[in-house]
Amino acid sequence: MEKILQMKGITKRFGNIVANDRIDFELDRGEIHGLLGENGAGKTTLMNILYGLYSPDEGEIYINGAKVDIKSPHDAIRLGISMVHQNFKLIQSHTVVENVALGLQDTKFFYPTRLIEKKIRDFSQKYNFKIDPTTPIWQLSAGEKQRVEIIKAFCREAKIFILDEPTTMLTPNETRELFRLLRLLREEGISIILITHKLDEVINVCDRVTVLRGGKKVDTVEINKVDKEELTRMMFGQDIDLKGRDQYIGNFREDVVLEVRDLTVLNDKGIVAVKDVSFDIHRGEIFGIAGVSGNGQRELIEAITGLRRVIKGSIKILGEDVTNMGVKEILNRRVAHIPEERMRVGIVPSMSLEENAILRSYDKSPFSKGLMLDYSIISDYAKELISEYKISALDEKVPAGTLSGGNIQKLILARELSTSPIIIIASHPTQGLDVRSIQQIHELLLRKKEEGCAILLVSEDLQELIDLSDRIAVMFNGSIKRIMDIDRVNIEEIGSLMVGV
Amino acid sequence: MAEKYKNTLLSILVIILGLLAMYLISGVRPDIILRSIVISAFGSVYGISETLTKSIPLILCGLGLSLSFRASVWNIGAEGQLLMGAVGATWVTLYLIPNAPRLILILTMFIVGAILGGIWALIPAILKVKFNLNEIIVSLMMNYIAIEFVNYLVYGPWKSPYEWGFPYSTKFPPSAQLPRIFDTRVHYPTLILSIVLAVILYIILNKSKLGYEIRVVGDNIEAARYAGLDIPKIVLIVLLLSGGLAGLAGVGEVAGIHHRLRVASGISPGYGYTAVIVAWLGRLNPILILLVSFLFGGLLVGGDAIQVSLGLPGATINFINGLILIFILVQGTSKMRISYVRKRRSE
User: Fold this and answer.
1) Cβ-based neighbours of B284, under 8 Å, separated by 6 or more
2) In this predicted structure, what is the pLDDT of residue A39?
3) For the segment A390-419, what is each residue's pLDDT rounded down to a tens digit?
């Protein structure tokens, strides 16, 4: 096989941390190559080096056997490398087509987007992606933004395609479609690097896989010569039990904690996003909401947490009407909220870990004394959270934005769960995290359930919903079609409800 | 690595070209101009006292602006807020309580000046919060209203009958004139006030509940919403304080230096605009702003001096100002780019 890309002895340090330690990586023409590892294993750093976002401290990169110096994404794109990022790199106020046009070589000076708009429409028709090229990005859900990123990369006609956790946002069907597309591209001689920590994906679609652990390369293996257990061992250095939990169903039928009736909410475009939704969540119950993102889940959660106006219907907490109350009033009724976009909403990246730890309780005792904040108490509190929730951070003074995705999520959970909530609203709590963080977060939620919390869990990960929920509702087009008890759940039925069949 | 120095080399090149152009136009060697500026601003007791005098309004306006910039509220109206402070002080002295005891008179001047400056900033704040109007444009436009209002007062209703027809208000009584250090123009009550306020502001920003809220709103407004912060209230408070600080600067100028209200350009040669630069170069840090204000005060003094000693036009100092800005901004952005890349490592 012809080698299209070679990375030799790549080393990248950030201060004292070695993010990549002498990593060798090779990519053949026309292969799908998995890059597997936990969060913080160095996958994204390695690919950012290839994409020109970082320059390596040591090591060389060869493309088609010729040594190259990739100083910026511009160079990378010129060399035929395209990247679909995990954290969307889109301009919020621009439309889909403008974002795709940005950075394309053949845009005209006048009406630069006209041609591309057609391209997008053709593309979305061909691959059955529902997207309106003239919508501004800020109005899109996380899943829709991901699609724009994918389209953007396709429009650049790249030879090497880097996908960073591309399926996080997609439904099983969309994932299958994406994989079919990747296989087609492989046949056309395009090489694909798939950054992931989902073993199933690797086994399903990849030809070879390179496993990273703690910034070092463990090995590169051909996919038909390994099995799941072996890959897990390579990723973690030990075996991890991937089995689900034993079912736990409490006697939650009596006390209703959260009552939602005929709830109707508009989205940012002023269109009805949630239509006459009704459900109850009881003490000690996890109520799961399945659905493809963009079907009203975000607006539903924003309405319950006080971020969005309710135009019809009611929300009650322990019998008290809280419809259209402010965020703080709802927060003060001990409602924890784990938001969907943790980087954009859940933390203030530039502020320290300790200041983020009190984001939703900074004005309460003991953190607040009169007009001042007591930073020695805050610091002790943050240290406690760090050890209790096993957040790996240098100390409590580091900017929260420097933590890895898993640790940011642990920080948010620590902050939200340590205030003894009675209701927990969790939106995609494990999206994009590694297996170990996912397990820790699942355990935390189950512990809170056993303590009697009522938990609303919105997720696109069916396995997660089935592992955790007592009842599951499917949201499609703003409505809840059916609420199912966990012992009567039928995957095929959920799947077809999710796509509106 | 070469990439890293490209900006620096480029900015040095621009500065050399700039100095060359200045030499060709003025006929005076740049090193003589620069030496003259430094010596006149920092080379004598008189120079330093003048530098201090001019840094006082820069400190107060710079502090106010830094507070609002920390909240990502873009107040460009310090000039107008300063002028309204000056109007407030004049009104208190000449019309409200001209015969009050000295301490009460001076305290009232500062309080009323701060309130008027604050109200001037509150107008863009309310328009922003209620009607989502852009505060940059409104606060900037408010400057022109304030300038014309001051000019109207000194040519019109407040014009003194004792000043030979000059556009001056009546001179303040001695009890309303701020004490100065010996025979310099350093009105030290305002200087002390500005230094104390810098320290207080530092504490507010970094240790108080309000400072915490300001930083959350300024750094991530989505997170502020999610945390349930009352964002409109914070915007109002921030602009009120911001304008109040600029108002204090206006009080200092009329009560400490001019002892009367005069045309706007006579009270402030653009302190409110220079303070925007001061606030940014001081990285919105109140303590650094003290230092940067002193340096910029020196530049203003030096600018006046080279007009007299070297016969250069007044715009020369703006020219030098621009060159310094180019240099610092280029350095600043390249630094920002590096820290941005660092921040992304954990993704």
Assistant:
1) B66, B69, B70
2) 64
3) 898 889 999 999 898 889 999 999 999 998
Report how far residue B120's alpha carbon sits from residue B135's, in angstroms, rounded to the nearest whole number: 12
Distance CA B171, CA B255 (A): 10
8 Å CB contact between B238 and B212: no
ipTM: 0.85
Spatial distance between the Cα atoms of A333 and A96, rounded to a whole number of angstroms: 39
Q: Which of B83, B70, B53, B48 minimizes the C-alpha distance to B239? A: B70
Output the CA–CA distances (angstroms, integers) from residue A169 to A175, A250, A340, A341, A431, in the order listed.
9, 31, 11, 12, 8
Top residue of A359, A397, A403, A404 to mutate, by most chain B CBs within 10 Å, is A359
Instruction: Assign domain A3-236 to a CATH class.
Output: alpha beta
Q: Are A338 and A414 in contact (CB under 8 A)?
A: no
The mean pLDDT value for A313-340 works out to: 95
- The Cα of B55 is separated from the nearest Cα of chain A by a number of Å equal to 30
Q: Between chains, do A349 and B207 touch, taking CB under 8 Å as contact?
A: no
Shortest Cα–Cα distance, A112 to chain B (Å): 29
Spatial distance between the Cα atoms of B193 and B188, rounded to a whole number of angstroms: 8
Q: Is the peptide bond before A366 cis (omega within 30 degrees of 0)?
A: yes
CATH of domain A255-334+421-501: 3.40.50.300
Tell me the mean pLDDT in the region A308-317.
96
Q: How distant is the Cα of B216 from the closest Cα of chain A, in angstroms?
A: 7
Nearest to A14 among B226, B227, B342 (CB): B342
| Cα B108 to chain centroid, rounded | 22
Upper half-sphere CA count for residue A100 (Cβ side, 13 Å)? 32
Check: CB of residue A471 under 8 Å from CB of residue A287. Answer: yes
Residues A235 and A36 sit within 8 Å (Cβ to Cβ): yes
**Would you list the domain boundaries of chain A?**
3-236, 255-334+421-501, 348-419
